[in-house]
Amino acid sequence: MQVFYATQFVLPLPPGHRFPMEKYRLLRDRLAAEVHDVQLMQAEPATDGELALVHTPGYIQAISDGSVDPRILREIGFPWSPAMADRARRSVGATIAACRAAFRDGVAANIAGGTHHAYPDKGGGFCVFNDAAVASRLLQAEHARHQRRPLRVAIVDLDVHQGNGTARIFRDDPTVFTLSLHGQKNFPFRKEASDLDVDLPDGTGDDAYLQALERALDELAHRFDPGLVIYLAGADPHEGDRLGRLKLTWDGLEARDRRVFDWAWQRGLPLAFAMAGGYGHRMEDTVQVQVNTFAVAAAYARRWHNRPR
Ligand SMILES: [Zn+2]
After folding, report:
1. How far apart, in whole angstroms, are the C-alpha atoms of residue 67 and residue 73?
2. Domain ranges in the chain?
3. Which of 117, 161, 182, 238 is catalytic?
4. Which fold has domain 2-306?
5. What does the pLDDT read at residue 8?
6. Can you list the alpha helix ranges (DSSP code H) found in the chain?
7. What is this structure's pTM?
8. What is the 57 CA–ligand 1 centroid distance (Å)?
9. CA-based torsion, 138, 143, 148, 149: positive or negative
10. What distance in angstroms lies between residue 36's CA and the mean position of ligand 1's atoms?
11. Is 117 designated active site?
12. pLDDT tens, 93-122?
C-alpha cells in the first residue's frame, strides 16, 4: 500500500501551541516499524493550477507569500511561515497522489490531510487548503480525458467535526457526494449542509455510532453511485480525545474503519484515505487509533492485490 507524506512532517510551532504536530512523525515511525506492506513515499506539492480548481487565486497567493489576512490566519490557528505554506501544498499533493494510487492498487493513503474546514477563499480549524476537494476535482479532470462518464466521488468524512468547507465547496455539485458524521455540539458551530449530515449527541458510544454509520452508508449507496471514495478517518471520535465529545473505543473505531473499507471493497471502489483530526489527552492514543486504521487498510490493500482479475 502506498502512503504519501509531506516533507515537513513537523511544522515548527511556538511553545505551548495546542496543535499536536508531533503525531505525524510518531505515526510515520510506527507505520514504518509495525505495519507490513506499507511503502512510504514523499508527495509533490500541489501546483497553483491544481489548488485553483477549488481555491481563489487571491487566497492561494496570500498563503504563498505570507500576505494572508491576520483574521484568516487566526481562524486557521497556525502562524504563517514558508514551511507552513509548503506543508499545506504538499498535504494536498499527498491526497492527490493517494487518489491516483488508489486507482492502481485499490487502497492508498495520505499520512496527513483531511483538511475539511478550508473554504475556497479562507482556511480555518488547522486547515489551510481543502485536500479532498482539490483531489476530487483534479481526478475528475484527469478521468475526463479518457472516460466519457464523469467521475463521481463520495467523500466519507468521519472526523468528529463537520466537513463544513467540503460541504460548501460541493453544495451545488451533483458529481461529488459529501457525507459527514459529526458531533452535533462540536466545532464548527455554524454548520453547512452536506449531501448527508448525521449529527451525533455528546457521549455517543460504539453501538449507536456504528448503527448511524450503517444507515448513512446505506443511504449513500441508495442516492449515489461513486467511482472513487475519499475517506477522512479522523481519530477524534475516540473517548480519549480532548475535543471529540464522543465515546468510541479502540474496537469501535476499528469496526468503523473496517465497515468503510468493506463498503468500498464490496463495490469494487478505489478508496484513498487521509488522517484528519486527532487531539488525544495522550498523543500516543491518537497515534494508536491511526496505526489501527492503517493496519485495517493494509489488509484491504492485500485483498485488492490478490483478487482474481
Ligand atoms: Zn476533527
Report:
1. 10
2. 2-306
3. 117
4. Arginase; Chain A (3.40.800)
5. 60
6. 22-34, 48-51, 57-65, 70-76, 82-105, 131-144, 164-169, 206-223, 250-266, 283-306
7. 0.97
8. 27
9. negative
10. 27
11. yes
12. 999 999 999 999 999 999 999 999 999 999
